């Protein structure tokens, strides 16, 4: 045995009828409801079984010592014994017998029992007497007391202190306390009418404890007003309204155009309008308004009904009829129109509307004739009638009739004139002129007629006659009016009339002083409208009167160049130089135009003539040199220059000479000229620069350095000179730095110098030094886009974009920064974006050749041929001069005589990302 | 064949007495048929550890077909079920299987069974009704 229990139960017999688990009070459990039923303790069956077995055992007479129920039953209460039985007749009889027995028993010895009970009561009473009975003998004596005696009985003193307590109570009840304000205000709030005023922010003024809330008062007033207005909207159905109907209608018509009116408003409007038309049914606008309201509400039938009522009520109002016609369909509208015409035979609008309702021309004609019968003076009707006629002859007849009826209508006269043949037209216009003496239109029309007939000379005459006539009779237009007329004529194709008008009227009512500016304005305005003939005429007139004003010549030349032929341009230029021979701009321009027309000899002759008038003018000299150089006549150019040096020894002439020599690779000659020039102009930075450059190109570095240094001594403010020197010294970085520092000392806050210093460091791979310099440079020149761009290039890739945005803000959209953004996009392989940003850069600064070069390069790889051509075209127009790489390319003497597109291509090769 | 050596409880009264009579040790009762395969394996295991745990546990077997009184009460529907009692209290153990009332699968490691019995005994001695199994069996017996 492994287990050794205390009691050797294993060998004992189990008792009979034992219920397993019951003996130890075992309880079961439910792990999961689907495994088995949840049972607590021994099962019912088991217990029942056990009970049955026990009962069996009892019958066998084994043991009955545990009959609990019998033992503890209440003996007195046996109602439960037969409680289950039914109450039948026998039971009733038995109860009756029992009650009779009780009665009988009660009646027996009744007298004796009652007597005994009475005696017992008395005995009890005597033993326990009442209080009143105890004092009965004493109170009996009181019956003898008289009233006086009663009255003279003395009051007992307040022995118990009861009176005092009562008094205290009374006093305490009478005591009052001040009620707190909060209670009062809350009580007020409970009873008063809430009127939406917020007491928190109310402006209350407290004077002597009384509170006057003005805000509350004014709000109450507003509220009252609003309520009255609301009432006016609803109450006025009764008939009387106190709203000005006209004012309300106008406001309604402005508001009702919006379709999104909410339903509540609509019904309110409708009621109001109803009251309006009821109050004043003769008021046509009310009817129209209500009909429109219904129409907006998509209630066409009711709209028609209203407008019909309106027509009945206000038959003399044209608008009501028109509205009615509009609201009805065509057939009904015709009927309405006929009614309307009956009421209002003189209304042009109704006739027109009626005519429009007809679909066939014949019917229309009929209507319009009827209308004309009624209203023969209406120009609109006549015009309409003429328009309806297809046959010109009929129209002519109509118009002649019309003009006889309405002789003052210029339009009709003109229309008639237009229809007639030339001779008749002239007659018609003459008649018209006699009829309407103040109309300029007739005169202009006459002039146009003459022009059409080919009598150009007559045009001028007609106009001048007309103007004198108009001045006499009145009806003269002002200057601007005439110019407008002229422009109209130009648009009609009558150029001669236009010119004639301008010629005769432009000088009208102007002082000599204002003329120039006013005429310039007039010309510019006409040009803006695209009326070139008018503008030309204005300038021609102006030049005729003020031939010495260069501005007019310039304007006129620009106009001719843009919109005229080359012959007219040259004739104009010829005229210009003739009238202003002392103005070299005009000469130069003339020569330029000649050259542009590839007329070299013409240009030469022009310049020769220019020399005659302006001897020894450096501009003309240089222009002449330019022409020679462009045509590869270098010897001639040299001769010209030497002449110029002798005649007009200016700095520009010297510089030009040197440049030419350099371009022709004649370095010795160039050096000679430079030295000569420097004797005359020792302060010219350009000459010093060129001297240095010549030495540099000859590889004579020490001489070049000397030239630059002496140049910087004389012109310390010349940045390019310093830059050239620094370039020269860049082989030895220390020297280069010192040069640049000296330059910076002489020219503080110069972004170009800073840029050079930064770049020198970058080229020498001193990135940290470069960064430090950038930081200082950005402090000194915070708006320099170039320095910002340089700083961005040194940033790590991820930080470039935010830095660029920063730069863009700081430099106010500097083109170099924009270009830097474009470059960033390019490096990120976003050519589209890069292109758009380069274009922005070009837009911001079209004078910077670098941007063009970059865009050219971009388009070479990512663009089409068309785009490239387009770019080159724009480039030629912009003709940029500045930048970083571009000047180097186009000023390089090696690139002499190369075309601009070639140069651009070279620049595109030179630029790097 | 371990069941031969383990004390058998023949009636419900014997089961009750076995539970009631033990004052200091854990009562481990295996319900199931002696000839059932799982029971045979389990009995073998129980027999082999019986001597080792005798100081704190006593092991009985009970044929739940012979004594059907507890089948409903203790949900004895598995072929082999082991239940634990201590001082007339049913001891529960969190095996991680979701059924904390009994151990109704076959263990194959003696030490595991010893550990379980020991854990339940320790919990019981501390007055707890629920012991935590030293090993989580949820991965093995998924319901």
UniProtKB/TrEMBL annotation, chain A:
Residues 1-10, 95-128 have a biased composition (Basic and acidic residues). Residues 14-162 form the PRP1 splicing factor N-terminal domain. Residues 1-45, 57-131, 187-207 are annotated as: Disordered. Pfam families: HAT_PRP39_C, PRP1_N, Suf, TPR_8. Residues 327-454 form the Suppressor of forked domain. Keywords: mRNA processing, mRNA splicing, Nucleus, Repeat. It is found in: Nucleus. SMART domains: HAT (SM00386), TPR (SM00028). Signal peptide: none annotated. InterPro entries: HAT, HAT_PRP39_C, PRP1_N, Suf, Syf1-like, TPR-like_helical_dom_sf, TPR_rpt. This is mRNA 3'-end-processing protein RNA14. It comes from Myxozyma melibiosi. The lineage of its organism: Eukaryota, Fungi, Dikarya, Ascomycota, Saccharomycotina.
Automatic annotation (TrEMBL), chain B:
It holds the Pfam family DIM1. The keyword Cell membrane does not apply. It is found in: Nucleus. Keywords: mRNA processing, mRNA splicing, Nucleus. SUPFAM superfamilies: Thioredoxin-like (SSF52833). It comes from the Eukaryota. Essential role in pre-mRNA splicing. Also essential for entry into mitosis (G2/M progression) as well as for chromosome segregation during mitosis. Belongs to the DIM1 family. This is Spliceosomal protein DIB1. It comes from Myxozyma melibiosi.
